[in-house]
Amino acid sequence: MTAAFDVTDAVVVVTGASRGIGRELAMLLAEAGAIVVPTGRTTADLADLSVEARYRGVQLHPVLLDVRDVASIRQTVDRIVATHGRIDVLVNNAGLGHAYKALDVTEADWDDMMAVNLRGVFFTSQAVARTMILRRSGRIINISSQASFVGLPDAAVYCASKGGVNMLTKALAVEWAEHGITVNAVAPTFVYTPGTAPILDDPEKRAKVLAKIPLARLGSPEDVANAVIYLATPASRLVTGTVLVVDGGWTAQ
């Protein structure tokens, strides 16, 4: 690997890393040589994550964090900087993906998803950016979704939240460029995780999803991780305010 694509010893915070895409992101970034600080909401989740890390021969530095709690975000960021000296890369992965029919959405459903998918992304970025500004360097990478570009049934709240992530990415990229901070997003297609299993384990639903993807395959956590690693490295130093779509061609149609 050339230096331009190297994340060795970069301090990378991955939110929502106890399961799904975030869990694999943390593992693959650690395997690539980064100092990975994965976050999760419970000690049980983080303990389970640590067990897998030991099995895979990588070291993680997990911390508790609830991105719905702004005070928790600020305290956790301060703790990470005190421990590791800096945060080079923030990956805003924490998110909810519940399916709700639009006519059935309650105020609580809306508020809960927005609190994690959009509000949490903003306030975590804000807290980390304050530390990056002092060093005039940093990478912020938001995990969006192809659902930020195309409407999906039973996903009005989710689509709205991820569309918000895209515009937040652009606005922060413009505002923080003068401080040497890049802000980008990765928007994957369906990736097989415990969260998407109820859809993708259904042969009929899986076939419908694959029919929308010209490359005719689902995304993998590694596909997402590769995009994140690119945006985390000097190779992407002139890339900011961009949403990198990793969808096998779904949104090109």
UniProtKB/TrEMBL annotation:
Name of the molecule in the record: Glucose 1-dehydrogenase
Originating organism: Planosporangium thailandense
The EC number(s) this enzyme carries: 1.1.1.47
Family: Belongs to the short-chain dehydrogenases/reductases (SDR) family.
Keyword Coiled coil set for record: no
InterPro entries: NAD(P)-bd_dom_sf, Sc_DH/Rdtase_CS, SDR_fam
Keywords: Oxidoreductase
NCBIfam families: PRK07231.1
Signal peptide coordinates: none
Domain of life the protein comes from: Bacteria
PANTHER family registered for this protein in UniProt: 3-OXOACYL-[ACYL-CARRIER-PROTEIN] REDUCTASE, SHORT-CHAIN DEHYDROGENASES/REDUCTASES FAMILY MEMBER
GO molecular function: glucose 1-dehydrogenase [NAD(P)+] activity
